[in-house]
Design brief:
single chain; about 400 residues; mainly alpha; about 55% helix; globular; disordered N terminus
Length: about 400
Amino acid sequence: MKNRMQDLDFEQNVAFDKVQEYEFTRRAAQRFRQVVSLDSFEDEDADVIFHYLYKEMELVSFGDHLKRYIYERAELEEPFSEVPQEVYKEIVVDSFKETYTPKSMNPTSTKLSALVNNWLNQASVKRETVFLLGFGLKMTTEDVSDFLTRVLKEQDFDFYNPDEVIYWYCYSTQQGYHKAEELKKKYEILAPVEVENTQVLYGSNLCRDTEEKLIDYLARLKSKRVDPISEKSQAFQEFTKLLYHAKQIIAGLYQHDEEEKGGDKVWTAERITPSDVEKVICSGIPINKMGNLKKMSASILAKHFSQKRFSRQRITNILSHKLPVERFDLITLEFFIVSQEMEDDDPFNRYKHFLDEIQDILLRCGMGEIYIVNPYECFLLMCLLTDCPLAVFSEIWEKSYEEGEAEEA
């Protein structure tokens, strides 16, 4: 497989020592290639991946991304690692004052300088903070989109959300926060314009480059607003489709076991519960006395995986519309499906197939493509390049809890 690493889909090959210290994506892509090209990767895949995730992988926080953005925008000349945080703070505070952007979208007594310091140190922030920074730093729509999808690892602009449509329009036309507030008030008193169910409201060719077009779009949107946790949302539809496919695979596994022990039970996707899905996908995660997965904080990779596991509670909450579908859910399900259906395929072909499939799904949901800097997504990609992806996936989860217990002892 080694000679095919140059075909991996992220950044063009570049000498590792030539990559600038603030070029997180290129650095992550380089390290990814180096790790999966190691001689030991084929024989000791789980150990190699675990070591990379825990000991070597660079965890890039929101604050680091924000500093990099300011560093490049301000064209600072000193080396990235030598720029004091005070410099970044001053640039942000000055820009917020210059653009007349408030320090928060909600009432707060905290000073702007303290809020900026917090943003520069945060591992992650809320979505609305990114929108606020978009106004405060005069970002383009592309800049904000990048922060939403690559940095927060969330959905891109939601064109079925009136506030986000308004923000998008204001960034596109370089109008400030107060214009956005004015447009949000207009939306509140706008009369909805009915749209036929067959009419597509949002498409990639939709143009809202004037306020008149924006207001027209918002009026039609008002009659067709889709809640992101409703069954009409694209992400929920993709989730249920993938979940059913996963249940079919699990039913097949159960049926095989049933026949081996001479039983006569017939397993179908409909008989597979969220508990069954958890048991198969999370088999490497230990359970407590109550039968629940051990808490995430007990894993040494808790920070890397952003506190997410594909538990039965999570699945049930999504299906009952208590939680929105996130990219993590879609990526995990697609990983499981590909790991099983292409178990005997060439690892590189399996990896490429997964990327093709998941990129299309994420695109349809407006969630941004797979991002190699995201530790969980990098972890799944590495697993796909091994001989037994699901077994390696489970082994690394198991190791993370064993190491966590060893550190506590």
